[in-house]
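User: I'm putting together a small comparison set for a docking exercise, and I want a reference complex before I start. The sequence is below, and the ligand is fe (ii) ion. Could you produce the 3D structure with the ligand included, as structure tokens?
Assistant: Of course. I'll restate your input first, then give the structure tokens for the complex.
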Amino acid sequence: MLYRVKQFFHALFPKISEDDLLWVNRILGPNEVELFKKLPVHEQQHSIAVGKDCMRANGSEELLKAALLHDIGKIESNLTILNKSLVVLLSPFEKHKKHMARFIRDAFYYKEYHPLIGANLLKNIYIEINQGESFSLTQSQERVIELIEAHHHGNDSRDNELQLLKKSDANN
Ligand SMILES: [Fe+2]
């Protein structure tokens, strides 16, 4: 019984373990960690689970970064657990969304565009980091951005890492 109560409270007040936090700090740079921590804790947990799956599949450093940061486009969104569930329930009626409440329309918007929003957010952070050296992105930074932008709608079947990211996202 006590176990059930604990389980319930863990679901209500999710926490990131010390070990997982250390792992995140190993994969991400300080500015990226700052961005990661702006995600709601349940999204942080999801992203860590996706990242660990990618690590087990021997993913590159860029893939692991993308896995941890793939949903950062939701930071400014209203995609709470409840709104996400509503979006799923209402998705068969998405074409009528202009008649729905504003918060539902916003949730549909972020569901659709968070990959692009997240990619742009990270790009701006990288440009800030690079300043002083160059304004252009490194190949590695470009790759992380590319993976984030494609994590829902990208369907390049030759891109094995993108496929791995999509699969791990769907499984977690
Ligand atoms: Fe996503």
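The CA atoms of residues 126 and 132 lie 12 Å apart. The chain has one domain: 2-171.
User: Thanks, that's exactly what I needed.
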